[in-house]
Amino acid sequence: MKREYHPLSAHRLLPGARHHRPGQDAERVRVDSPALAVMTDLRQIPAATIDLEAPVDAANRFMIRRGVRLLLVSDDERHVLGLITSSDILGEKPVQFALERGIKRQEIRVRDIMTPCERLEVLHYADLIHADVGHIVATLQRAGRQHALVIDMGGDGKTQTVRGIYSASQIARQLGVAIQTTEVAQTFAEIGAALRR
Fold it and tell me: Residue 182: its pLDDT value, please?
Protein backbone atom coordinates (compact mmCIF):
# COMPACT_ATOMS: atom_id res chain seq x y z
CA MET A 1 0.00 0.00 0.00
CA LYS A 2 1.38 3.39 -1.02
CA ARG A 3 1.59 5.91 1.83
CA GLU A 4 0.51 9.46 1.14
CA TYR A 5 2.67 12.29 2.48
CA HIS A 6 1.18 15.71 3.21
CA PRO A 7 3.29 18.86 3.41
CA LEU A 8 3.93 20.26 6.87
CA SER A 9 2.87 23.76 7.86
CA ALA A 10 5.52 26.42 7.32
CA HIS A 11 6.01 29.24 9.83
CA ARG A 12 7.94 32.51 9.86
CA LEU A 13 11.21 32.75 11.76
CA LEU A 14 10.76 35.44 14.39
CA PRO A 15 13.35 38.21 14.84
CA GLY A 16 15.79 37.35 17.62
CA ALA A 17 15.59 33.57 17.06
CA ARG A 18 18.79 31.79 18.08
CA HIS A 19 20.31 28.46 17.07
CA HIS A 20 21.24 25.58 19.36
CA ARG A 21 24.81 24.73 20.23
CA PRO A 22 25.98 21.17 20.86
CA GLY A 23 26.06 20.55 24.58
CA GLN A 24 23.78 23.54 25.29
CA ASP A 25 20.89 21.31 26.23
CA ALA A 26 23.03 18.41 27.32
CA GLU A 27 21.36 16.13 29.80
CA ARG A 28 22.70 15.90 33.33
CA VAL A 29 24.99 13.02 34.03
CA ARG A 30 26.59 11.60 37.16
CA VAL A 31 30.13 10.39 37.75
CA ASP A 32 28.85 6.82 37.48
CA SER A 33 27.08 7.45 34.14
CA PRO A 34 28.56 5.69 31.11
CA ALA A 35 31.66 7.48 29.76
CA LEU A 36 30.27 7.35 26.23
CA ALA A 37 27.36 9.58 27.34
CA VAL A 38 29.72 12.59 27.52
CA MET A 39 31.89 11.89 24.47
CA THR A 40 31.46 14.01 21.35
CA ASP A 41 31.03 11.23 18.79
CA LEU A 42 32.54 12.30 15.47
CA ARG A 43 30.40 9.73 13.67
CA GLN A 44 27.40 11.90 14.62
CA ILE A 45 28.83 15.43 14.86
CA PRO A 46 31.27 16.66 12.19
CA ALA A 47 34.77 17.28 13.50
CA ALA A 48 35.84 20.92 13.75
CA THR A 49 38.99 20.99 11.63
CA ILE A 50 41.49 23.58 10.43
CA ASP A 51 44.29 23.68 7.88
CA LEU A 52 47.98 23.82 8.85
CA GLU A 53 48.45 27.15 7.06
CA ALA A 54 45.46 28.95 8.57
CA PRO A 55 46.33 32.06 10.62
CA VAL A 56 45.91 31.47 14.36
CA ASP A 57 43.46 34.39 14.61
CA ALA A 58 41.26 32.73 11.95
CA ALA A 59 41.41 29.50 13.97
CA ASN A 60 40.29 31.40 17.06
CA ARG A 61 37.34 32.99 15.19
CA PHE A 62 36.36 29.56 13.85
CA MET A 63 36.40 28.09 17.37
CA ILE A 64 34.14 30.87 18.60
CA ARG A 65 31.68 30.33 15.74
CA ARG A 66 31.61 26.55 16.28
CA GLY A 67 31.41 26.89 20.08
CA VAL A 68 34.46 24.65 20.57
CA ARG A 69 37.87 25.04 22.20
CA LEU A 70 39.75 22.46 20.14
CA LEU A 71 40.29 22.04 16.42
CA LEU A 72 41.77 19.00 14.74
CA VAL A 73 44.47 20.06 12.30
CA SER A 74 44.00 17.95 9.19
CA ASP A 75 44.87 17.73 5.52
CA ASP A 76 42.61 17.25 2.49
CA GLU A 77 42.54 13.48 3.04
CA ARG A 78 41.34 13.92 6.67
CA HIS A 79 44.69 12.79 8.13
CA VAL A 80 45.00 14.24 11.62
CA LEU A 81 48.25 16.21 11.75
CA GLY A 82 47.75 17.57 15.26
CA LEU A 83 45.43 19.76 17.25
CA ILE A 84 45.19 23.34 18.41
CA THR A 85 43.24 24.62 21.40
CA SER A 86 41.98 28.00 22.48
CA SER A 87 44.58 27.88 25.27
CA ASP A 88 47.30 27.48 22.62
CA ILE A 89 46.03 30.52 20.73
CA LEU A 90 45.24 32.78 23.67
CA GLY A 91 48.16 31.74 25.88
CA GLU A 92 51.91 32.32 25.77
CA LYS A 93 52.74 30.18 22.72
CA PRO A 94 51.98 32.80 20.04
CA VAL A 95 53.79 35.55 21.97
CA GLN A 96 56.89 33.40 22.47
CA PHE A 97 56.84 32.23 18.84
CA ALA A 98 56.52 35.80 17.52
CA LEU A 99 59.34 37.04 19.78
CA GLU A 100 61.68 34.17 18.85
CA ARG A 101 61.08 34.63 15.11
CA GLY A 102 60.80 38.43 15.12
CA ILE A 103 57.40 38.34 13.40
CA LYS A 104 53.95 39.85 13.98
CA ARG A 105 51.11 37.86 15.51
CA GLN A 106 49.20 38.06 12.22
CA GLU A 107 51.96 36.03 10.58
CA ILE A 108 51.63 33.08 12.98
CA ARG A 109 50.04 29.99 11.45
CA VAL A 110 48.33 27.01 13.07
CA ARG A 111 51.38 24.82 12.26
CA ASP A 112 53.56 27.12 14.36
CA ILE A 113 51.80 26.50 17.69
CA MET A 114 49.73 23.33 17.29
CA THR A 115 50.51 20.11 19.11
CA PRO A 116 51.67 17.67 16.41
CA CYS A 117 50.11 14.22 16.22
CA GLU A 118 53.27 12.44 17.39
CA ARG A 119 52.95 14.22 20.76
CA LEU A 120 49.27 13.37 21.28
CA GLU A 121 48.08 10.71 23.68
CA VAL A 122 44.75 9.10 22.91
CA LEU A 123 42.19 6.82 24.52
CA HIS A 124 40.97 3.64 22.83
CA TYR A 125 37.23 3.49 22.21
CA ALA A 126 37.18 -0.18 23.23
CA ASP A 127 38.44 0.82 26.71
CA LEU A 128 35.53 3.22 27.16
CA ILE A 129 32.68 0.81 26.64
CA HIS A 130 32.65 -0.18 30.33
CA ALA A 131 34.11 3.08 31.73
CA ASP A 132 32.21 5.73 33.69
CA VAL A 133 32.32 9.53 33.52
CA GLY A 134 34.43 9.47 36.70
CA HIS A 135 37.14 7.54 34.83
CA ILE A 136 37.26 10.28 32.17
CA VAL A 137 37.41 13.07 34.76
CA ALA A 138 40.25 11.27 36.57
CA THR A 139 42.10 10.75 33.27
CA LEU A 140 41.82 14.43 32.30
CA GLN A 141 42.89 15.54 35.78
CA ARG A 142 45.91 13.21 35.87
CA ALA A 143 47.02 14.39 32.43
CA GLY A 144 46.34 18.05 33.30
CA ARG A 145 44.38 18.45 30.08
CA GLN A 146 41.10 19.95 29.01
CA HIS A 147 40.56 17.45 26.18
CA ALA A 148 41.13 13.82 25.29
CA LEU A 149 40.93 12.27 21.84
CA VAL A 150 39.33 8.85 21.39
CA ILE A 151 40.40 6.53 18.59
CA ASP A 152 39.02 3.44 16.92
CA MET A 153 41.57 0.82 15.95
CA GLY A 154 41.30 -0.69 12.48
CA GLY A 155 41.06 -4.42 11.93
CA ASP A 156 44.79 -4.52 11.16
CA GLY A 157 45.57 -3.25 14.69
CA LYS A 158 47.65 -0.38 13.23
CA THR A 159 45.20 1.99 11.59
CA GLN A 160 43.70 4.62 13.87
CA THR A 161 40.67 6.84 13.29
CA VAL A 162 39.75 9.65 15.67
CA ARG A 163 36.29 8.63 16.84
CA GLY A 164 35.52 11.18 19.54
CA ILE A 165 36.59 13.96 21.85
CA TYR A 166 36.16 14.45 25.58
CA SER A 167 36.01 18.02 26.85
CA ALA A 168 36.40 18.85 30.54
CA SER A 169 34.22 21.96 30.18
CA GLN A 170 31.42 19.98 28.52
CA ILE A 171 31.59 17.27 31.17
CA ALA A 172 31.54 19.96 33.90
CA ARG A 173 28.36 21.45 32.38
CA GLN A 174 26.72 18.05 32.25
CA LEU A 175 27.77 17.17 35.80
CA GLY A 176 26.87 20.62 37.10
CA VAL A 177 30.25 21.00 38.86
CA ALA A 178 33.62 22.60 38.16
CA ILE A 179 36.42 20.32 37.02
CA GLN A 180 40.00 21.39 37.69
CA THR A 181 42.44 19.86 35.21
CA THR A 182 45.39 22.22 35.48
CA GLU A 183 48.65 20.32 35.62
CA VAL A 184 50.57 20.94 38.81
CA ALA A 185 54.35 20.57 38.76
CA GLN A 186 55.49 18.05 41.36
CA THR A 187 59.15 18.97 41.75
CA PHE A 188 61.44 21.97 41.33
CA ALA A 189 62.93 20.22 38.29
CA GLU A 190 59.48 20.07 36.65
CA ILE A 191 58.91 23.75 37.46
CA GLY A 192 62.27 24.64 35.91
CA ALA A 193 61.53 22.54 32.83
CA ALA A 194 58.15 24.24 32.43
CA LEU A 195 59.77 27.66 32.69
CA ARG A 196 62.35 26.78 30.02
CA ARG A 197 59.69 25.67 27.52
Answer: 65
